[in-house]
Amino acid sequence: MSEQQRVDCMKCRHFYITWDPKFPKGCKAFGFKSHTLPSHTVLSSSGKPCMNFEPKIKTKT
Fold this sequence. Notes:
This protein is of the alpha+beta class.
């Protein structure tokens, strides 16, 4: 997998942590939970990098 195809779910606004121990990582954009990072699931399923990545909005503190 090339650097260009890697999508960092931790920096995406659609990524969330679930309460399900079997599927602890989720994607609100695609509506699924996974054991691995959602971007890895998308890449392995479709052969293409995630197209729904949106950077998290940083709030001022």
